[in-house]
Amino acid sequence: MLVRCCRVKLSVWAALCVLVLGWFYVFPAYRLPSDKEIVEEVLGLGEAWKKNQTGIDLYRNLLTECCNPRWMFSVTKENAPIGKVLWYDGEYYYSHTVNNETYSIFVQTTPLKPLKKCAVVGNGGILRHSKCGRDIDQADFVMRCNLPPLTKEYLADVGNKTHLVTANPSIIEKRFQGLFWSRKAFVDYLKAYGSSFIYMPAFSMRPGTDPSLRAYYAITDSPSNLTMLFANPDFLRNVGKFWKARGVHAMRLSTGLFLVSLALGMCDEVTVYGFWPFSIGLDGQPISHHYYDNILPGKWFHAMPEEFVQLWHLHKSGTLRVKVGSCRPQSEGN
């Protein structure tokens, strides 16, 4: 009896194995290309790129339907009145109910209008020696990620024009001691971004709320032309679902992909720079993770290679342009 029972169990397991193998044969599992394969494909395509207005319109409509970037990108007095419950997109069981204090620090309405040429600048090491600074600065609207350095040594490669820059609360904690001691270093550092918008996910995860609020008061208490925008957790959540449905599997999207989503929803033409999460450059040589350092991100939190593959698909379709090589002088063409 025992032998018969074991045989039955083995038969069931064998049948399941055959079924799984058959499934993968008919529907093979997706395999992310290796760094070398990505480099070969990018080099194979070369500099060829053609704008596809149909693709641009399609993605603008898709992002408007799911996420409404123009209305929901940031928390405002209009979309988050007193009493509104903001559910943290990074911690699903926690929320913040808008009260008089938080309502008073929100902008009245979204300050972003439909835009023409936008540049979304990541921090990838691919930017080092790219000479893309002038191209970036010629965009009508420039977005940057996580308070990157814009000092003289990087000017030729990344430019300095900035209209919006993100600031992760963890940067406030690590680089500026949480703004508990002195705010001067933080305020002085922000001078590099002129009169831009500072975009922070204050209502994304609970540990990020207080540092974001301290950053807001540091800016408003100083003679600064900067404007603080707080990310709307509904926008972040919906954008995450949008890209997950398209093959990006990660605990959380990168800041860069959130900005690209905004740009696709609001700009007539989008070019992204510095989006290159691979260990080798186009010349096959090792490359630093950032253009200013080689500190690697935590594993499993973001899925940067998956994000790049999605952006590269959009590049090939003409929906946006991914600039990964050097930028030639204006006289030589684009």
From TrEMBL:
Among InterPro entries, the record links this protein to: Glyco_trans_29, Glycosyltr_29_Sialyltrsf, GT29-like_sf, Sialyl_trans
Q: Which cysteines are joined by disulfide bonds?
A: C118-C267
Q: What is its EC number?
A: 2.4.3.8
Per the record, the pathway is: Lipid metabolism; sphingolipid metabolism; Protein modification; protein glycosylation; Sphingolipid metabolism
Q: Which reaction does it catalyse?
A: a ganglioside GD3 + CMP-N-acetyl-beta-neuraminate = a ganglioside GT3 + CMP + H(+); an N-acetyl-alpha-neuraminyl-(2->3)-beta-D-galactosyl derivative + CMP-N-acetyl-beta-neuraminate = an N-acetyl-alpha-neuraminyl-(2->8)-N-acetyl-alpha-neuraminyl-(2->3)-beta-D-galactosyl derivative + CMP + H(+); [alpha-N-acetylneuraminyl-(2->8)](n)-alpha-N-acetylneuraminyl-(2->8)-alpha-N-acetylneuraminyl-(2->3)-beta-D-galactosyl-(1->4)-beta-D-glucosyl-(1<->1)-ceramide + CMP-N-acetyl-beta-neuraminate = [alpha-N-acetylneuraminyl-(2->8)](n+1)-alpha-N-acetylneuraminyl-(2->8)-alpha-N-acetylneuraminyl-(2->3)-beta-D-galactosyl-(1->4)-beta-D-glucosyl-(1<->1)-ceramide + CMP + H(+); a ganglioside GM1b (d18:1(4E)) + CMP-N-acetyl-beta-neuraminate = a ganglioside GD1c (d18:1(4E)) + CMP + H(+)
**What Pfam families does this protein map onto?**
Glyco_transf_29
Task: Provide the protein's localization.
Answer: Golgi apparatus membrane
Protein name according to UniProt: Alpha-N-acetylneuraminide alpha-2,8-sialyltransferase
Which organism is the protein's source? Poecilia formosa (Amazon molly)
